[in-house]
Amino acid sequence: MSQYLTVSKSPLYSFIFTLPLFLLYEVGIFLISSRDIDQLRNGADVFMRQVLESFGIYGMYGFGGTFLIGFLIAFIRQKKNLRTSEIESRFLLIMFFESIAWATLLVIMMIKIPTFLSLSNEDYLIQQVVLAIGAGIYEEFVFRVLLISGLAILFGLIFNWGEFGKTFLSVIISSAIFSIFHFFGSYGDTFSFPLFFIRFFAGIFLAMIYIFRGFGITAYAHSIYDLFVLVHITIND
Questions:
Q1: Domain that holds residue 29
Q2: Exposed site from 13, 39, 127, 219, fewest CB < 10 Å?
């Protein structure tokens, strides 16, 4: 059990675990509509592509390529440090079921407001499915991996805080930004404080999963939650 808890949190297993999610999203976006592809991409994906373009990295798949290269580097570096070169497929399966458990817990927590993490008002079910997948991998990469890690480093350098203090404040700030993010753009919701705090606490919940269980499980939990919401909306329409 202790081995599973250790390796399942690692960048190596996160890379392998999230690779199918990443490919499903990118292939899904490509197949939906080449004409409307920019409008259909996940908001965090679009934001990061715009940031990369400011550094001269252009192209529809700039962020996707950067994301993949980043995890390949993590894969190669950590693979050298593992005791064995074998990847335990049973651990990946357990990670999947653990992700379902976290997503289910999030659904239970938000049972009275089940649509708070829904992604957009697109008419087509397939688009909603693809965007749900994208939300898990891209939003968690931006708001958890980049923001929490980046802010923690910044606070450590500026204030010389310990691990708990800098991580705690990073979680609070990243969760607030995660919530605010959903009110911007063409498909953003109309701002309200109740909805802001709902997403804020959801961000904290996802941040806790990320800190204690790693990126891979968090990404799947987010995507699976969104798919739960999508099924709920479809059944009740």
A1: 2-236
A2: 39
